[in-house]
Design goal:
Elements: H1 2-20, E1 25-26, E2 39-40, H2 41-88, H3 97-108
Antiparallel strand pairs: 1-2
């Protein structure tokens, strides 16, 4: 819930910057005298925001895949163990009188 609120807050901040800064133009200067043609500030901010979101997603993606694969392995192991327990456990109606007595003593404790 908190992540969603933070995400919405960041989106609103970015949208506000885009709406309020449509007029000013800037030219980015690089090394060796290279420069961009003048572009509106909102395009620069929106572009940086989008690139940042894409890079963040790319950085998180491998860890997300690793966690999903580990979860799948754990579920298969759990299912295999549950099947083995069900195979080894005697059925309830066929419990011997000795097991019933032991079970009733365990309930009294």
């Amino acid at each position: 819930m908190i992540r969603a609120l933070i995400f919405i807050l960041i989106l609103l901040l970015g949208f506000t910057i885009v709406v309020k800064n449509t007029g000013p133009m800037v030219a980015l200067q690089y090394f060796f005298g290279l420069a961009t043609p003048p572009i509106p500030v909102y395009q620069l901010v929106a572009g940086a925001f989008i690139i940042g979101m894409l890079l963040t997603g790319l950085m998180v993606f491998p860890e997300w895949i690793r966690i999903r694969l580990e979860l799948r392995r754990q579920r298969k192991t759990l299912q295999r163990m549950e099947e083995e327990m069900a195979h080894l456990r005697p059925p309830n109606p066929a419990m011997s009188s000795k097991n019933r007595a032991a079970a009733s003593e365990g309930e009294e404790l």
